[in-house]
Amino acid sequence: GAGVSQSPSNKVTEKGKDVELRCDPISGHTALYWYRQSLGQGLEFLIYFQGNSAPDKSGLPSDRFSAERTGGSVSTLTIQRTQQEDSAVYLCASRIAGEQYFGPGTRLTVT
Amino acid sequence: KQEVTQIPAALSVPEGENLVLNCSFTDSAIYNLQWFRQDPGKGLTSLLLIQSSQREQTSGRLNASLDKSSGRSTLYIAASQPGDSATYLCAAGDSGGSNYKLTFGKGTLLTVNP
């Protein structure tokens, strides 16, 4: 498949644990985004990567959230010391020519 | 800060009806406007993308229009089918800072009844 892929599709974790979410963008797309979709909140921008430029982290809700992109391709979103309010669907998108293409998301449940 | 509003929040129609979904945004300095479809438990499927210089885009039974000056976009669905049932999301692309991040509305939940 040539689309954006994310793993895992579902993750259940205990409050206080760290989690890592992975995104594989479409090959050749240099721009990558993470968004969060919470019940009642809609989709919110988290972070943006473009090539070798410094990422735009303006949407990260707290310093427990971080992300990296290795080799200009795969990205990992890390949430440390998870809280119940972190429960949401985390969506990754890659972009070409102004259009963003989304992955299926990772549903995170913090118990 | 860009804010996107979608009306109505939910819509139920009989099969075959033509319908219009509305989207409004507060900052007209957008790069583009994208309409998505989201099925339950699934990711987003891009339906139509309108560049800021364009007025409308069409794909099959779907037509999206953009009026930047009034901060509005509409998605028109012709001859609706039960398979069109989904949540439709409108997103404004940010032109400032060149990150092109999307600001989303909360969506319109469409149900097309057979």
What does this structure look like?
Chain A has 111 residues and is mainly β. Chain A is 0% helix and 52% strand. Chain A has strands at 5-7, 10-13, 19-24, 31-38, 42-50, 65-69, 75-79, 88-96, 99-102, 106-110. In chain A, strand 6 and strand 7 (75-79) form a beta hairpin. The radius of gyration of chain A is 13 Å and the shape is globular. The model of chain A has no long low-confidence stretch (mean pLDDT 93). Chain B has 114 residues and is mostly beta strands. Chain B has strands spanning 4-7, 10-14, 19-25, 30-38, 44-51, 56-59, 62-67, 72-77, 86-94, 102-104, 108-113. In chain B, strands 2, 4, 5, 9, 10 and 11 form a 6-stranded mixed beta sheet that branches. A 5-stranded antiparallel beta sheet of chain B has the order 1-3-8-7-6, with no helix packed on it. Chain B is globular. Chain B starts with a strand and ends with a strand. Chain A binds chain B through residues 31, 33, 35, 42-45, 48, 50, 56, 59, 91, 93, 95, 98-105, 107, and chain B through 31-32, 34, 36, 41-46, 49, 51, 89, 91, 93, 97, 99-107.
Strand content of chain B: over 45%
Strand runs of chain B, count: 11
How many β-strand runs of chain A?
10
Output mean pLDDT of chain B: 94
Low-confidence stretches of chain A at least 5 residues in length (pLDDT < 50)? none
Task: Write down the overall mean pLDDT of chain A.
Answer: 93
- Residues in β-strands, percent of chain A: over 45%
Question: Which structural class do you get from the secondary structure elements of chain B?
Answer: mainly beta
Q: What is the assembly state of the chains in this entry?
A: heterodimer
Main beta sheet of chain A: strand number and arrangement?
6 strands, mixed
Instruction: Give the terminus-to-terminus CA distance of chain A.
Output: 33 Å
- Uncertain stretches of 5 or more adjacent residues of chain B: none
Secondary structure: helix percent of chain A: under 10%
